[in-house]
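Summary for the funding panel

The consortium committed to producing paired sequence-structure records for every protein in the target list. Below we show the first two records in order, beginning with the earlier of the two.
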Amino acid sequence: MKKKIKNLFPIICFISCIIFVIFIGYQIYREPYQEADKRNHFEDRLIDDYMDEKAQISNEVPSEEAPLVEYQYSDVNDYSFRGYIDCILVIDKINMKKAIIRGNILADSDFNLSKYYFVTADLSTTLDGNYIIYGHSSQTYGHSFNRLDEMNVDDTFYIIQGGTRYRYKVESVNRVLRSKSETYFPQDIGKRVTLVACEKSLAPGYSEKRIIIVRAVQMGKERA
């Protein structure tokens, strides 16, 4: 019996090591998702405050949140942003609900985008014209504009600003190099929304990532 146990001991140790490595690997894999989920919960509170018009939105991390750790491949740093919530973007198809942050100066927009989580509105555009929203294709699935590449012509979404819900239908989806994208951002085209993010990976035949440009036309509005 002792001999059998002695023979099994190396096998048990090997299996235990494999289980331990798998467990650690899974935890490392899950860290950015868990952190991004924390950000989503925080942003949900910001959106609730905006919708309820209850309180002034604070740019500070809530005191009950645990200290954050920065990971190389995730949307982590801190929860702060510069500017204010201009409106709420909701795209049911890709399960996304984001607060659109509008900075006061260009440096604010750069700061917000540097977080790789927030999406931010162009300083010079409004819902009366071609309202441009920038975001990153996050490395964490389902966060920021990570799933923007799933949008197609005729898909719908809406934006809530104040007490009004604006409905939109996608009229074009383009993938172009940044250096050749200027013509895809016309200003005098009526009430449109343009969503912009980089592709997550290089497309065949290109030496740099293209940007995804999703443009939608306003279809109507109603009370939110």
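The next record, for a separate protein in the list, is shown here:
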Amino acid sequence: MSQSSSDIREDNERLLKAYIAHLRLEKGLSDNTAAAYSSDVAKLMHYFEDAGSGVLSLSTDGLHCFLSELHDMGIQPSSQARILSGIKSFFKFLKIDGRIEHNPATLLEAPRLGRHLPEVLTVEEIDLMEECIDFSTFEGERNYAIIETLYGCGLRVSELVELRISNYHSDEGFIIVTGKGDKQRIVPIDDVAITAIENYRSGMRACVDVKRGCEDIMFLNRRGTGLTRVMVFYIIKQLCERAGIKKNVSPHTLRHSFATHLLEGGANLRAIQQMLGHESITTTEIYLHIDKRRLRNEIMLHHPRYKQH
């Protein structure tokens, strides 16, 4: 039987108090250090409360989803590593205290502190994921539309779940996306994604009773309310497993794949920056190292010193 949001919050508050007491009394940590650890754990708890999940039932995949979101939010790797340290300490406490049987945080790895490009899916791998979808169901049509929108528009998962029907302009071929800091940007949307969305919305009208206040939300669950970021993570993860893809994939992987494939196809870095909603071009430049051969060929072709006469 699933818990209500209020029950989950009460359980989380009790667990957090017990953990703080453990840090102070048994670990002998200072009040400031204990507060820092508990603050990081509270972030984790709040993240999953919206999805109706308590921390005692979290899996390693769920924790990976949370860590992926930290990266998506632009939190520095050093801060991600600190938060992960607090999470590992918390779940170690839960295991020692007998509140969980298995520790889902054991295999979590701290992010590398240098800049690096996360996993990228090939076009063929994305096609394999889509081939595993059951299009006879409402969820199947919706999940296909989700993949095509994430990959075709390069959205963050938070931008996807917040996408509004009123900001979807299929006739003109663009969507208005609300990104970090509530900044809006116009993003082109291709015909494949438009068709997928239209098919999903057509099927949704026949089988979903949309709840009051959710009428303008693009992607809904069968209960007629908006999807959570965690739910989108599980959708992507499950499709990758069905497709036999062994990479560590999250919704953000589709965003990275979008940018990578654009650059490989010859797109201008500034255009990619605008599509992704990066404030600084240096954030987008992380993709440059993926295609050094193409960049070298461009120089060989256009630089006067390399032109063949």
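Regarding this second record: Residues 5-26 form the longest helix (22 residues). Residues 208 and 222 are 6 Å apart (CA to CA).
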